[in-house]
Each structure stands twice: as structure tokens, then as C-alpha cells.
Amino acid sequence: MELQANAALIIIDQQKGILQPRLGRRNNPQAEARILELLERWRRSGRPVIHVQHLSCSPESVFWPGQSGVEFQERFAPQAGERLIQKQVPDAFCATGLEAMLRGAGIGQLVIVGVATHNSVESTARTAGNLGFEAWVAEDACFTFDKADFFGALRSAEDVHAMSLGNLHGEYATVVGSGEILAAV
Asked: What is the pLDDT of residues 78-135, one digit of tens each?
């Protein structure tokens, strides 16, 4: 993998609410450690970092504004010079100005990490690919939760994660491990 000098790291929804036990069983317990490794390397290299924060329209959401769940986890708090994108739907491109910001900065390559793989990560990576960005998803720097399928069968977080990555790889994005990305920084 060749990583451009201005490749952006997009960290999705690393907010306090995502740690709520009511969201259920998750996969990839090491995901946050992988995200932090990427974030630290991005900061050292001077590449752009974009933090995405979900502001839910639903009072039942862990990301409802006005309560602590909407706040960034301290370890993922944006630093000076890093961009903040706030969204109200899973896709970080929808009604946020993200595309214009990236194009204005001449950024064409994106590394996408965060949560949830089947939701905000997948929808953001799909749009990135559809808009012509070179999108990379670090599979071990994302996680999701157990989820029932359309017919009511409970699918494990591992299966949901794998299916989402399978949906993305080769069509909308390239899915790799964080080690391959770190080796290219």
C-alpha cells in the first residue's frame, strides 16, 4: 500500500456512549488500541486527522446531545489543528461538508476506522468510494455489535463485522489490517 503524504485518518464515533453495555456484545476488543496506534502515528507524521461525532436526533440514543454519551472519549479527543465533523446520520459525508473540506485540501486518500462497522463505518466508506476517494478501512480498528438480521436470526458481532467488510472490500474500499497501514506511514 502506498500512503500519500496528506492521507486523512477518519475516526468515526469514538464517543463515550459507544461504551454503554446496553449496546450489547461487541467484537474486536483491541480496536481502540489499534485506533490509538494509528492516531499517534498520524499525529507524528503531520497527516490530517478528522474526528467524526454523531449527534443523534433520537432521545433514546447513546449519542443524544446534552448528555455525556455524546462527548468524545478523552483518549480520542480532537487536538488543535484536527478537524471535527458532526453528523446526524451514519454517513459522515451526508450534510456535513466533509467532501468539500477534503477536496478543498486536495485529499484523495482516506483511512477509515471506528464504530460501528456495519453502520457508520460502512456507510461512510461506501460514500467515499462512490465519490471517487481512495478509501482504506482498517478491519482491526473497527468494531460492531451482535445484531438480528432481517428474518430475526441473531448474528454475532464477528459475523456482522465480517459481512460489512465483505460488502466494502474491492468495490467501495480496500480492507486491510492496521499493521499494513502503519508500515506505510
From this structure: 999 999 999 999 999 999 999 999 999 999 999 999 999 999 999 999 999 999 999 9
User: All 3 cell numbers of residue 44?
Assistant: 507524528
The pTM (predicted TM-score) of the whole model is 0.97
Q: Are strands 134-143 and 109-115 parallel, antiparallel or unpaired?
A: parallel
In DSSP terms, which residues pair with 83 in a beta bridge?
50
Residue 30 DSSP SS3: coil
Distances from the Cα of 38 to the Cα of 1, 101, 155, angstroms: 15, 21, 29
CB 33 within 8 A of CB 133: no
- Domains belonging to the chain, first-starting first, are 8-184 (3.40.50.850)
Q: What are phi and psi of 160, to 5 degrees?
A: -65, -45
3-class DSSP assignment, residue 87: strand
